[in-house]
Amino acid sequence: MTTSPSSLASDPPALETAVATSTPRAVFALFAGFAAFAFTIILPTLLLDGDTGWHLATGAWIVAHGSVPTHDPFSFTAVGRHWVAHEWLSELAMYASYRAAGWTGLNLLTGVAMAALYALVGYELPRWMSIRASIVAVLLIAPGIAPSLLARPHILALPLLAGWLIALLHARERDQAPSLLLVPLMLVWANAHGSFIFGLALSAVFALEALIAAAPADRRTVIFAWGKFGLCAGLAALATPAGFGGLVFPFYVNGLKLLAHLGEWQPADFSTFTASEAALLATLFFVLAKPVRIPPVRLLLLLGVLHLALQHTRQEIVLMVVGVLILAEPIGKAWTPAAAASAAAESPTARRDTYRASVAVLAIALALVAYRVAVPVARTNSPGVPAMALRRLPPSLRGARVFNEYSFGGSLILAGIRPYIDGRSDMYGDPFTLDYIEIVGGNAARWRAANAKWHFGWTILPPRSNLAKRLDHDPAWRRIYADDIAAIHVARSTR
Questions:
Q1: Which residues contact 209 (CB under 8 A, 6 or more apart)?
Q2: pLDDT tens for residues 34-77?
Q3: Is the CB of residue 118 less than 8 Å from the CB of residue 110?
Q4: Separation of alpha carbons 402 and 386, rounded Å
Q5: What is the rounded CA–CA span in Å between residue 320 and residue 165?
Q6: Do 25 and 60 touch, CB atoms closer than 8 A?
Q7: Measured between alpha carbons, how far is 338 from 358 in angstroms, rounded to an integer?
Q8: How much is the pTM?
């Protein structure tokens, strides 16, 4: 069943829930954020993504040159090609934290971003749910975020997404357009990560909802107010080094054929039971077990985001954040009578339970933070980080041309080595990247053609890859190092 958001906003019981005492909300937001921070900084997989390397190198380049790169400064195959660092603000923050405290600093920065996300969500949910229900809702976010919880710009952008959506929801409750004071957030978001385009789309969705809900006599006012906000937000989104190109960039990336070969861009796989599927099924249970009334436009929004998440697994983080914030009000109203929720929130027992839980969670979180400070982060070998192989690389090879595993490219850039390819697949484009995929898949003719063009001095590849196995039996090449992550082969002419 559905109903208009304006009727929901004006419902007296909903107002009772909304004005429930702010202290439990603030306490819950505090320990939710701090728990997320503590969990993030001890997560062993946080620094195991190869792309982190080229993001840090971009931040270092910006500091060294005092500008944002607009042409490739890193590879030897695309050097000088047009490439704008769309995420330069995030990369600058990443490099600043790395320069201040090494990998531990980057680890803490990512923890702060997750703390901000969970604090924002944790402060919003108790407006509509009991504290216990809010805990369940917050925990349901984690499975969708965990696989993408890496030290990369998309994580730094998640609090911006949550803050933007919460501001839009509050504007609709007031039956007003968002304040123009929100526009600077879009300016930051547009320079931090390409997901800002989704923020603009959210503005359009809620503007449509406001227009549908408005009385005919008020629609002109609604169009003017929301149009003014949308125009200002759009202009802020254009204030980036990429300009208009930044607006079309997400659509360009989404249309690349090479995405079908990248893990994070794969469609959702339900052949095995995952935590994300568990979160989705749990949400369906709460939505279907009782009559949950979701306004039609918001229901279409949720279905659209669900489609994106099923199409590309990297969009699961967007689904989790948007889903929990959109569904908080309708699920809360369906499962908890507003008056009872308000009374429970204000009761001494509820306050006492909240504070006890807060103390317990904060104590554990403080212990974890103390552990992280006492034991600095060390980046180790992983499928995207050939740390040991690079430490064993002969200095004479560092300036020679390398054919590398795609996921190793970022680590090579951070080490000052120009790669053949790296995670900036949008810059390399479909023809080059698809050719690369054929080469590593074992296409001998394409390998010979690439070697004849670039004259590789060495390769660094997973030891069990088809190309690495081929080079093991090629008299023109010699393996000089191998571990579980990477094997290095050297052209005999460069020995």
A1: 5, 172, 295, 297, 298
A2: 889 988 988 888 999 999 999 999 999 999 999 999 999 999 99
A3: no
A4: 14
A5: 13
A6: no
A7: 24
A8: 0.88
pLDDT tens-digit series, residues 431-477: 999 999 999 998 999 999 999 999 999 999 999 999 999 999 999 99
Helix (H) or strand (E) holding 181: none
What are 458's strand-pairing partners?
Answer: 402, 490
Token pair in block for residue 340:
């009872």
456/490 Cα distance (integer angstroms): 9
Give me the torsion for CA of 52, 55, 56, 58, rounded to 10°.
160
On whether the CB atoms of residues 491 and 456 are closer than 8 A, the answer is yes
State which amino acid sits at residue 381: N
By the 8 A CB rule, do 150 and 44 touch? no
Separation of alpha carbons 187 and 318, rounded Å: 20
- Residue at token pair 């931040």: 59
Domain ranges of the chain: 5-374, 387-494
The SS3 of residue 427 is helix
What residue ranges in 339-472 does DSSP mark as E strands?
402-404, 458-461
- Return the residue matching tokens 């993504």: 49
